[in-house]
Amino acid sequence: MKRLTLPVTALLACTALFATSACSNGADAQDASDGGGTGSERTGGSEPSEGTGGPADVDVSGVEGATLHTSEGDVEVELFPEDAPLTVANFVGLAEGEGVPNPETGEAAFYDGTVFHRVIDEFMIQGGDPRGTGRGGPGYTFEDEVGSGREFDEPGVLAMANSGPDTNGSQFFITVAPTPHLNGMHTIFGHVADEESMDVVNGIAGVETDASDRPVEDVVLESVTVHRAE
Question: What is the per-residue pLDDT across 122-136, written as a single tens digit (0 to 9) for each?
């Protein structure tokens, strides 16, 4: 099992969370051009498809949260539609099949069956890539929403991976420790809602991984259930 402390992760920011880009100041968190970076490095990106539009036009006024049904257990998250309305609409649209379909499976519910392709203990877990390589996405990018004042000041922050400013797509990550070096670089659109869910996230973060931080045994995001106010 690979365990990286945050200081080491920051130094190795070019191999961790995002897909295959280059690091900047040892603390950039970026991934694929379709939005695959997370945390403190740039790891190459996804190649966006052409002509696939943008985030779904979804009403998120009543959205409160979501359940990520994973192969390791359920993760309840609270979503922040007031702080990041476009990002939440994108996530909800992809999750519920109102956005673009998964380009690999053809399924309307984009996230169903995707894997957490990059996992770093004491840092974060990253998923949302239809290819499972860190280089996939929905075929479009959209702008950041980083002006809410929310920060990476505690474990359990849910945020978008990217390959630079305004390159969000479908990939997201959940932190397992405070990661202040990511402040202002990634859109925060939710957080883990309870201790039991955080235990699941920590369990995923601690699985055995290979040299590229991919779990040796797939950790699957089986489906996502969105919760709205009644």
Answer: 999 999 999 999 999
Catalytic residue status for 189: no
168 is catalytic: no
Q: Are residues 15 and 186 in contact, defined by beta-carbon separation less than 8 angstroms? A: no
Select which of 118, 135, 181, 191 is catalytic: 118
- State the burial class of residue 216 (Cβ atoms within 10 Å of its Cβ: 0-12, 13-18, 19+): exposed
Annotation says 18 is catalytic = no
The per-residue pLDDT for range 51-80, each reduced to its tens digit, is 457 898 999 999 999 999 999 999 999 999
| Domain range annotation of the chain | 6-13+27-46+62-228
What pLDDT score was predicted for residue 25? Answer: 31
Spell out, as residue ranges, where the chain has pLDDT lower than 70.
Answer: 1-52
The partner residues of 228 in beta bridges, in order of sequence, read 63
* CATH fold for domain 6-13+27-46+62-228: Cyclophilin (2.40.100)
